[in-house]
Amino acid sequence: MIGFPSGTKVWLAAGITDMRRGFDGLATLVQCSLLEDPFSGHVFVFRGRKGDRIKVLWWSGDGLCMFAKRLEQGHFVWPEASTGSVYLTQAQLSMLLEGIDWRRPVRTHKPTQV
User: Fold this and answer.
1) Contacts of 4 (CB under 8 A, 6+ apart)
2) pTM of this structure
3) Which InterPro entries match (predicted)?
4) Is residue 70 part of a domain?
5) pLDDT single digits (tens) 59-113
């Protein structure tokens, strides 16, 4: 995973997105649907219809970067809302990209008092 600068917000675009869209199409969605600035340095994540593909759009300071991922099995966990956006932490984005349910991560160790 690429390390984003501290303070970078991660936004999931609720609903489905046409995965044929490129840089300009996704930047337009960020401006018109999410009402955000695609050149803000924040990260915007979009999911395809079947849920097995995502695209990530990020302004690195000197150009737009677009990352794509397709899961061979399963699907990416996505919010139920059909419009708007959801804010994630960078740790939740890492889980999302690995196909892990970022909404309810299960901790394997529970600390105890000594």
Assistant:
1) 10, 43, 58, 90
2) 0.82
3) Transposase_IS66_Orf2
4) yes
5) 988 999 999 999 888 888 887 776 778 888 888 888 888 888 777 766 666 777 7
Backbone angles phi, psi at 95, to 5 degrees: -65, -45
Domain of residue 39 covers 10-97
Residue owning tokens 């994630």: 88
Structure tokens at 49: 């219809």
Residue 18 in any domain: the answer is yes
Total domains in the chain come to 1
User: Residue 7 and residue 41: Cα distance in Å, rounded?
Assistant: 9
Tally of CB atoms within 10 A around 84: 14
Whether residue 111 lies inside any domain: the answer is no
